[in-house]
């Protein structure tokens, strides 16, 4: 009891003398997390963002047109702009210090509090560059103003001397900051060229009035060591680049830019671009005054509100009552969006500015985007229709999934809306079950007799499956073969794919051992790769290996997978007497049930190939898909053969 009253530790040391006041930049070094969100790699890269943001503010304010970012060695970076230059004259409040020194060495010193020197700035706390200074073991600022060059150096937040005029600068203006992140704070973390260049490039997309030059002394083998970024096309181009070759529902994104001044008589603006795609998860990149807000905020909320209300209203207009069911999740799941706003006096959550809190921004953006969206939907009815259909489908699927969950009894074998031509197996448990996707009906006939009805199911596919990515993406949902396939598998496509719903353990593609068969197999693999990738990753996709030849000698029967095997077998002989009969199967349909069972379907005797995706596939996914879907089908298949590492697996 006593313990509770007095506490267990001695208390005599806790008096006024134990209350410390941290001076100058000390608090930053003591608690970096409060200012840059930690001391990890991400936090360290944020130092560059702070300095770059200041140059961007200078550019957005119309005073700088060029910024250079140079990674000069492991942990030093230079950021240079041709703006007005940080003031170097003595500060009125501290006559013995220059404004430069006050800015670098004092928290909450800056020119962005009043809106006089900057209108819509990313900076607002007057903290950024002083934090960078505190956390650098070396920092040098050069300012070129009025044809003179000034410089001052710092270490861990302390000036190493006063600001000095170091020479004439007849052709130069602006600020240059070179700093080295302090290893006392950041340990062994190093600046990554790729990460920095990505940051730099996105800034250029966000403000087309600036040209940013990138240079790196470190070559990571992938990131260019020199590049110049200038993107007059703004966010529409940025989105295009982010989406690569992914198929999209709208031919051109819904993109635009609105000045709040013109529309509402208030300073600021918003720019956006959005499209929907079936082939990848949606994303949103949002920015305020060029600062990336990874946790979103009021501007994102306003944007989605405009899109949601717009699409519902359009649905009502065209008499699609189901549009009312669409919610924000449906929009976001396949929606790829970029939103960038410029506003005065933004309010961010925290110094790393991950979330925007300015309430008014949401209203302005919703109002600005909404009008444009209504017009766009009305003018591009083809895209509008495709997007609406897609979103309605998503909403229905979501509702269906929910009601399924509600009616509980969640087994992997629920038989909802199974396609008529599916020959299902009788097992009620997914474990050990197999679905053979077979080419054509005739093959289906012998396969039906050859299968083990307990755990082997069949789905005959008629004709060639649509070349999904080649065709307009909206067609994919309308393709009957693909719908049957999805229903049989029990899963949705793209972002709607859910591995848990898969109704079979092994999905086995069984096509003829000829060129056509190879083509169909390659189309199917491409489809699974782009739409149901987790299924491949989890090792559920297989290729059957039907033989090409049957050799008979009396009662002896031997099957050979290919020419080479046949030749070897003929040379060795079957061990019987008399002539060896060679028959070549033109297709699965030519095999009788016994042939098919022994060679291709019976787990005791067959051979299966598991399809896996090799880790070191070159390039980005989009690039890969493009190559898979190149014009020549034979080449596509070759590519898969070479790169979809075939792990042979003789399963017993
Ligand atoms: N490249 C630059 N060109 C001109 N002035 C600059 C530049 N960098 C910094 N400044 C001046 O220094 C001030 C302080 O910068 P600092 O980054 O510390 O704070 P801030 O940008 O005002 O706010 P925040 O803490 O949100 O970044 C700025 O407000 C600006 O007046
Ligand atoms: Mg700043
Ligand atoms: Mg400061």
TrEMBL record:
Give the E.C. number(s). 5.6.2.2
Biological function:
Topoisomerase IV is essential for chromosome segregation. It relaxes supercoiled DNA. Performs the decatenation events required during the replication of a circular DNA molecule.
What cofactors does the UniProt entry give for this protein? Answer: Mg(2+)
Can you say what this protein is called? DNA topoisomerase 4 subunit B
- One BP annotation, GO: DNA topological change
CDD domains of this UniProt entry?
Answer: HATPase_GyrB-like, TopoII_Trans_DNA_gyrase
Q: Which GO terms describe its molecular function?
A: ATP binding; DNA binding; DNA topoisomerase type II (double strand cut, ATP-hydrolyzing) activity; metal ion binding
* Assembly and binders: Heterotetramer composed of ParC and ParE.
Alphabetical UniProt keywords:
ATP-binding, DNA-binding, Isomerase, Magnesium, Metal-binding, Nucleotide-binding, Topoisomerase
**Where along the chain is ATP bound?**
14, 54, 81, 123-129, 353
PANTHER family attached to this UniProt entry: DNA GYRASE/TOPOISOMERASE SUBUNIT B (PTHR45866), DNA TOPOISOMERASE 4 SUBUNIT B (PTHR45866:SF4)
Q: Which SUPFAM superfamilies match?
A: ATPase domain of HSP90 chaperone/DNA topoisomerase II/histidine kinase (SSF55874), Ribosomal protein S5 domain 2-like (SSF54211), Type II DNA topoisomerase (SSF56719)
Q: Could you say which enzyme class this protein belongs to?
A: isomerase
Tell me the protein family, please.
Answer: Belongs to the type II topoisomerase family. ParE type 1 subfamily.
């Amino acid at each position: 009891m006593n313990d509770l009253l007095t506490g267990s530790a001695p208390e005599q040391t806790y008096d006024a003398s134990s209350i410390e006041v941290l001076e100058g930049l000390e608090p930053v070094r003591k608690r970096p997390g409060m200012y840059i969100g930690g001391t990890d790699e991400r936090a360290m890269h944020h130092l560059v963002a702070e300095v770059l943001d200041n140059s961007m503010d200078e550019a957005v304010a119309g005073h700088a047109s060029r910024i250079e970012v140079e990674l000069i060695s492991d942990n030093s970076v230079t950021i240079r702009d041709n703006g007005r230059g940080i003031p170097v004259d003595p500060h009125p409040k501290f006559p013995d210090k220059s404004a430069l020194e006050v800015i670098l060495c004092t928290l909450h010193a800056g020119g962005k509090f009043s809106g006089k020197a900057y209108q819509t700035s990313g900076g607002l706390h007057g903290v950024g560059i002083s934090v960078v200074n505190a956390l650098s073991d070396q920092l040098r600022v050069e300012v070129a103003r009025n044809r003179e060059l000034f410089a001052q150096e710092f270490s861990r937040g302390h000036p190493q001397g006063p600001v000095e005029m170091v020479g004439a600068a007849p052709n130069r203006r602006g600020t240059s900051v070179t700093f080295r992140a302090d290893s006392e704070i950041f340990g062994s973390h190093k600046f990554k060229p790729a990460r920095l260049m990505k940051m730099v490039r996105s800034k250029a997309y966000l403000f087309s009035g600036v040209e940013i030059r990138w240079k790196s002394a470190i070559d990571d083998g992938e990131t260019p060591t020199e590049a110049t970024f200038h993107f007059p096309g703004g966010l529409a181009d940025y989105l295009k680049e982010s989406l690569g070759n992914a198929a999209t529902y709208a031919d051109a994104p819904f993109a635009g830019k609105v000045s709040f001044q013109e529309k509402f008589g208030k300073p600021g603006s918003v720019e956006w671009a959005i499209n929907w795609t079936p082939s990848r998860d949606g994303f949103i990149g949002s920015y305020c005054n060029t600062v990336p807000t990874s946790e979103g905020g009021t501007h994102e909320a306003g944007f989605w509100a405009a899109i949601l209300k717009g699409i519902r209203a359009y649905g009502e207009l065209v008499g699609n009552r189901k549009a009312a069911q669409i919610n924000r999740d449906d929009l976001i799941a396949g929606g790829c969006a970029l939103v960038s706003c410029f506003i005065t006096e933004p309010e961010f959550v925290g110094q790393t500015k991950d979330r925007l809190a300015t309430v008014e921004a949401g209203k302005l953006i919703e109002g600005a985007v909404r009008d444009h969206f209504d017009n766009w939907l009305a003018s591009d009815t083809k895209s509008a229709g495709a997007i609406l259909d897609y979103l309605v489908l998503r909403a229905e699927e979501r509702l269906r999934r929910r009601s399924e969950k509600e009616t509980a009894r969640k087994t992997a074998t629920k038989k909802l809306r199974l396609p008529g031509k599916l020959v299902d197996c009788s097992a009620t448990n997914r474990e050990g079950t197999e679905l053979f996707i077979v080419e054509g009906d005739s093959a289906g006939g012998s396969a039906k007799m050859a299968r083990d009805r307990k755990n082997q199911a069949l789905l005959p596919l008629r004709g060639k499956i649509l070349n999904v990515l080649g065709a307009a993406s909206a067609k994919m949902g309308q393709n009957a073969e693909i719908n049957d396939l999805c229903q049989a598998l029990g899963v949705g496509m793209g972002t709607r794919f859910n591995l848990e719903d898969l109704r079979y353990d092994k999905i086995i593609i069984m096509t003829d051992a000829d060129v056509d068969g190879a083509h169909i197999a390659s189309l199917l693999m491409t489809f699974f790769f782009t739409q149901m990738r987790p299924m491949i990753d989890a090792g559920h996709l297989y290729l059957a290996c039907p033989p090409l030849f049957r050799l008979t000698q009396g009662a002896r029967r031997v099957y050979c997978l290919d020419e080479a095997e046949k030749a070897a077998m003929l040379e060795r002989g079957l061990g019987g007497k008399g002539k060896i009969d060679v028959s070549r199967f033109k297709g699965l349909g030519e095999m009788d049930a016994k042939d098919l069972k022994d060679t291709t379907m019976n787990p005791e005797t067959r051979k299966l190939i598991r399809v896996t995706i090799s880790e070191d596939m070159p390039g980005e996914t989009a690039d890969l898909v493009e190559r898979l879907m190149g014009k020549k089908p034979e080449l596509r298949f070759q590519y898969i053969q070479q790169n979809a590492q075939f792990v042979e697996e003789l399963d017993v």
